[in-house]
Amino acid sequence: MSCNWGTELWDQFDNLEKHTSWGIDFLERYTKFVKERADIELSYAKQIRSLSKKYHPKRNREDESRYTWFVAFAATLQQLNELAIQREDLAENLNGQIVCELTRYTQELKAERKSHFQDGRRAQQHIESSWKQLESSKRRFERDCKEAERAQHVSNKIDLDNKTDGEKARQTAQQKQQAAEESRKDYVTSLNQFNQDQHQHYHTLVPVIYQRIQDMEERRIERIGEAMRSLAEAERKVLPVVSRCLDAMMEAAESIQPRKDTRQVVEVYKSGFDPPGDVEFEDYSATMRRSISESSYLDNRTEERRQSRKLWPFIRKTKLLFLGMRVECAPLPSQGKLG
Amino acid sequence: MSCNWGTELWDQFDNLEKHTSWGIDFLERYTKFVKERADIELSYAKQIRSLSKKYHPKRNREDESRYTWFVAFAATLQQLNELAIQREDLAENLNGQIVCELTRYTQELKAERKSHFQDGRRAQQHIESSWKQLESSKRRFERDCKEAERAQHVSNKIDLDNKTDGEKARQTAQQKQQAAEESRKDYVTSLNQFNQDQHQHYHTLVPVIYQRIQDMEERRIERIGEAMRSLAEAERKVLPVVSRCLDAMMEAAESIQPRKDTRQVVEVYKSGFDPPGDVEFEDYSATMRRSISESSYLDNRTEERRQSRKLWPFIRKTKLLFLGMRVECAPLPSQGKLG
Q1: What is the CA radius of gyration of chain A?
Q2: Distance CA B200, CA B184 (A)
Q3: Beta strand A325-327 with B325-327: parallel, antiparallel or unpaired?
Q4: CB atoms A142 and B284 under 8 Å
Q5: How far is CA B309 from the centre of its chain?
Q6: Which has the higher per-residue pLDDT, B83 or B172?
């Protein structure tokens, strides 16, 4: 089947005008669609970015970066920010590559369409005026024929009655006949002109204009297809980056080492003190016996041990630290020997 | 380096309490983070879905589904809706698999942590009361020794002056000596008990409790890691589906055939009429000549041609349709023959 608008749709000016107008409406609608899509991406990116920012560590507690789980979370937030950047880039591409270009293209297309339909209307006006010319010369010919016929009648009738009047009427009839002949020539000229115009109109002008409209329509559709491909392509380009971000998040999650973290806690908090040894006996009865056997050997030995041994903190602080809990308590008695 | 909290951090009860509390804070913070992430996905999905719905065709104009560009756009919207569904599923997975589970786990963890630190406090109370027992028996021994010593002094002094009083004082001194001996035994018992308690405290109870706290902390970190992996995994699962949606969008865009669409326009609008042929000559002078040569052959032939020929529309409608434009106009004259 032929699909040439110029030959197939020669009588569908109004419908083509409507159809191409609908096409441009769609183009504008599609542009708006992509714009709204870009806005959604932008708002999504904004939310993701502020989520990442909100949870970003403020380093106000322990030096958190020494713990693998903490570092992993920071890395996740970093990747999340990367995702936001990707979405922003996508939105920018949609706006720049598609929305802007389609908006500009739509303006061009509107201008082109207007010009084609103006050409159509001009051709229409030309054939109309050619038609009017034909009509008017045809009517003149019709009128002149009638008048010539009437004059001939009169002449024929008078001719039988009166020679002088008959001559005059015959002259009038001859003049009318000549005028009719002139009108006939005019009419034939107008008719030939109209038929020539009409042929050119339907076989050259209209086909050319409609062919241009069809080309324009095909370019519009081609352009829609391109925009749709660009849209899908722009989103596709994001995928590998998103995939890398997710890989990095996964790696971060897998880099978490609970054992290493609890070892870090030891490094941070270990006091270096040993747990207290046995409390020694304090022999208050010693003074009683000292009179019998004076000996400072054991006392001296205790003193030596106390100095060589790493002190545990609550001796210095005069506080008891069982299990690391601070408990207000009487100072430990000075250590003595078990008697 | 050893990383055993039970032996390395025996004196860091307060710090471990703070550190594990911070760990639980983080868990809650992370849960909140995932919740907010899911909310963002849900809001994004909602926007995408309503965009798809908003632009979905309402079939109010021509039967649009006959055009490839229109079908392609509908397919794009369909895929967009599919993307929204994927995002909703993602949000649901984040809420269900991560947020709910972590919330439940955090409650369990809080209960477990509380129980470990209660055990710690109980052990602390026990060693404190053992210490108090030791202190009190030591003081009693100290007092009794002093009293015995004083009684011995008195007895020694009196012994030299008065035999009767001396005997009484000696008996008192002996009783005091015995009481001191009793206190000494008590003190030794308390001391042994305390040293035994203290040894058990620092070498069994504390190590066991702190080891449990460390295990708990390592499980918490492990769990954080799992949650982070789940988060990345849940997002990763979406990628192939998104990729398929984008492939489908690309296919839709590539299925656009401008030539096919303009051929469709021909099918929709073609009237089937041929463009008008030449307008024929109407010979108003014929009646004048008919008297000379009467012949209806050409008129009849014209009539035949008019009936066999497919009429073009403006003849029937008494309207002129040049280029398909409706123009109010005089009816075409009945066709005659060129004379």
Answers
A1: 55
A2: 24
A3: unpaired
A4: yes
A5: 73
A6: B83
CA B218/CA B224 separation, integer angstroms? 10
Domain boundaries, given as residue ranges, for chain B? 5-262, 271-327
SS3 state at B276: coil
Instruction: Tell me the Ramachandran region of residue B214: left when phi exceeds 0, alpha when psi lies from -120 to 50, beta otherwise.
Output: alpha
d(CA B274, CA B262): 20
How many residues can be counted in chain B?
339
Q: Token pair for residue B258? A: 């401008």
User: How many contacts does A have with B, using Cβ atoms within 8 A?
Assistant: 368
What integer pLDDT is reported at residue B161 of this predicted model? Answer: 65
A314: its two tokens: 């609550």
Residue B147 tokens read as: 């009293």
- Give CA–CA dist B45/B242, Å, rounded: 13
Per the listing, tokens 């079939």 go with B59
Q: Tokens for B171? A: 């008996």
What's the complex ipTM? 0.80
Interface test with B, best of A265, A280, A312 (most B CBs within 10 A): A265
Q: Is B6 touching A (CB cutoff 8 A)? A: no
**Third-level CATH fold of B5-262:** Substrate Binding Domain Of Dnak; Chain:A; Domain 2 (1.20.1270)
Judge whether residue A192 has pLDDT over 70.
yes
As a CATH number, domain A5-257 is 1.20.1270.60
Reported as half-sphere exposure (CB side, CA atoms, 13 A), residue A129 has a value of: 5
SS3 (DSSP) at A255: coil
